[in-house]
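User: Show me a protein chain along with its predicted structure.
Assistant: Here is one chain, sequence first, then structure tokens.
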Amino acid sequence: MLSFENVLDCFAPIIQAGICEVLLTRHGYVAMEWDEEERKWFNVTHCDTPEALREAILSAYEGYLQLMLVTDCHIPTEEEIRTIQKRSADLRLLCNSHGKMTII
């Protein structure tokens, strides 16, 4: 069974790299992303289940991958989208099996 600790442990490299931040509030976990240019938070998501936290972190990671793969601001190609979706799906399976990410 997936737990918050499993999710945080699995995605520690994403959180440590600052791709997203995860905070424990009195109402539960919150995942959020920071826009350095705008100097504000966005995609602030309350995560009331481990699965919701996993999906919020994966969403932030997918945005990061898109920025890394699509460097000239074009609309992502189908191949680029498939690459991002495959990485995300692989990480979802890793998390579900209580694995740990080793690199971003």
